[in-house]
Design a protein that fits this description.
Blueprint: H1 2-9, H2 12-28, H3 32-60, H4 67-94, H5 101-119, H6 129-148, H7 158-181, H8 193-197, H9 199-222, H10 228-244, H11 256-265, H12 270-282
Helix pairs in contact: 1-11, 2-3, 2-6, 2-11, 3-4, 3-5, 3-6, 5-6, 6-7, 7-9, 9-10, 10-12
C-alpha cells in the first residue's frame, strides 16, 4: 500500500503517462525520429510540474488538498522537487532534439499556465479547472512533441488539430472523476462539472468525452491521417477507458489508489495494446 501511494504521490505514474501520451501522439503522426526524446522530456517536465504544483497547493492552500497528501508532501515534498529537477537536467542533456523558437515559446507558455494553476490559483476560478488541465496536457503531449520534431506553428495541419482534440477530450474525460473525488474539498465557487450537474451526470459526460476521442481516432485511421496500427491502438485504448470513468467504477469514496494508480495509469496502457495490434495486423 505504501509503495502504491509513493508511486502516485511522487507523480511517477502521471509523468510516465504523459511521456507515453507524447510518444504515441508523435508515432501516430509519423514523427518516429524524435518520439522517444520528446517523451523523455515531457515525462521529466510533467513530474517536476506536478510536484511543484502539489507542493505549492499543500503548503499555501491546504484547504484544497486531502490530509494524507499534505502529510506526504510535508515529509517528502522538498526532496521530490530536487529529485525531479535532477531528472529534468539529465533528460535535457541526454536527448537529441532541436529546441526551436516555437518549442521554446510553447514551453514558456505551458510553464506559466501550469504555475498559474497553482499560484494564482487559476484552478479555483469558476469553470477553469477542467479546461485548463485538459488544454495544458494536450498541448504538451501533441503540439510540443511536434515542435521538437521541427514543425512550426504555421505547419500545423487539420490532422494534428484533430489529434490535439482527441487528446484534449480524452484527458478531460479521465479528469472529471478527479473532480468527483474532490467534491468534498473543492470550493463551490469553482463550479466544476460535478458541482453543477451532479456526480452521475458528470461521469456520463466523462464517458461521452472519452468515447468521442475514440471516434476521432477511428476517423483519423479511416481517412489515412495517422499511422494505422497506432491509431487503432489509441481507438481501442479510448474505448476501454470509457468503463473506468463510468459510475460503475467511479465513486466519491473510492481509495486514492484508484485515482492515482488506475486512472493515471490508463495513460500508459497503449504500451500494452500496441503490441497486440501489431500481432493482429501481421496475421
Amino acid at each position: 500500500m505504501q509503495i502504491l501511494k509513493i508511486l502516485g504521490y511522487s507523480h511517477i505514474i502521471i509523468s510516465v503517462g504523459a511521456g507515453t501520451t507524447a510518444y504515441f501522439s508523435a508515432l501516430s503522426l509519423g514523427l518516429e525520429g524524435g518520439a522517444r526524446d520528446a517523451a523523455c522530456l515531457i515525462c521529466a517536465f510533467t513530474g517536476l510540474g506536478y510536484t511543484v504544483q502539489r507542493f505549492i497547493k499543500t503548503q499555501f492552500f491546504p484547504h484544497s488538498a486531502p490530509q494524507d497528501r499534505i502529510a506526504f508532501m510535508n515529509k517528502y515534498g522538498r526532496h521530490l522537487v530536487v529529485g525531479w529537477v535532477a531528472v529534468l537536467i539529465a533528460a535535457v542533456n541526454i536527448v537529441e532534439v532541436e529546441f526551436s523558437h516555437s518549442s521554446n515559446a510553447l514551453l514558456v507558455a505551458l510553464i506559466i499556465l501550469s504555475m498559474s494553476y497553482a499560484v494564482v490559483p487559476l484552478r479555483e476560478k469558476p469553470h477553469l479547472k477542467l479546461p485548463l488541465v485538459a488544454s495544458v496536457f494536450a498541448l504538451a503531449t501533441v503540439i510540443y512533441p511536434a515542435c521538437l520534431a521541427g514543425l512550426e506553428v504555421s505547419d500545423m495541419t487539420p490532422t494534428i488539430a484533430t489529434v490535439l482534440l482527441a487528446r484534449l477530450l480524452y484527458v478531460a474525460g479521465i479528469t472529471i472523476p478527479f473532480d468527483v473525488r474532490d467534491l468534498h474539498i473543492d470550493s463551490t465557487k469553482m463550479k466544476t462539472i460535478p458541482q453543477q450537474i451532479g456526480e452521475k451526470r458528470a461521469l456520463h459526460r466523462a464517458m461521452i468525452f472519452v468515447l468521442v476521442s475514440s471516434i476521432l481516432w477511428a476517423g483519423l485511421v479511416t481517412m489515412g491521417g495517422v499511422d494505422k496500427v497506432v491509431g487503432v491502438s489509441l481507438c481501442i485504448h479510448s474505448c476501454i477507458s470509457v468503463a473506468f470513468v463510468s459510475p460503475l467504477f467511479v465513486r466519491r469514496n473510492r481509495s486514492e489508489i484508484y485515482y492515482s494508480l488506475v486512472l493515471d495509469g490508463l495513460l500508459s496502457f497503449p504500451f500494452v495494446i500496441l503490441p497486440l495490434c501489431y500481432q493482429l495486423f501481421q496475421q
